[in-house]
Amino acid sequence: MVTPGQSCPKKATPEEVGLATVTALRRTVPAAVPGITFLSGGQSELDATANLNAINNAKLLKPWKLTFSYGRALQASVLKAWQGKDENIEAAQKVFLHRAKVRKCSVVSENLKMLM
């Protein structure tokens, strides 16, 4: 994903990240490449999801299948809910299911506002 550097004083909007990312990919990745997988790259859960959604919603031709392989951005809130305690397993499972649904929506360009 094309995002500003950590020391940049201005934070980019998801729409700016989406447009910049798709533009960079269109300039450098051949259309014959079947797919591109994004990592969260240390972004927060919300930022990684919003940026992926904006990439998929960018109004530019995207000849590749775009998807994600998020570890920390999918697990952080689950681990926080669980806290290593058996009594929190069900709550953590609910959080995981919610985060997985949000990620799915970000890939298929569905509206995330109601889920985030």
UniProtKB/TrEMBL annotation:
Catalytic EC class: lyase
GO BP, one annotated term: glycolytic process
Pathway it works in: Carbohydrate degradation; glycolysis; D-glyceraldehyde 3-phosphate and glycerone phosphate from D-glucose: step 4/4
Record keywords: Glycolysis, Lyase
Catalytic activity, EC: 4.1.2.13
Domain of life: Eukaryota
GO molecular function annotations of the record: fructose-bisphosphate aldolase activity
Keyword Nucleus: no
SUPFAM superfamilies assigned: Aldolase
InterPro entries referenced in this protein's UniProt entry, alphabetically: Aldolase_TIM, FBA_I
Signal peptide feature range: none
PANTHER family linked: FRUCTOSE-BISPHOSPHATE ALDOLASE
Family recorded in the similarity comment: Belongs to the class I fructose-bisphosphate aldolase family.
Name recorded for this polypeptide: fructose-bisphosphate aldolase
Species, as recorded: Strongylus vulgaris (Blood worm)
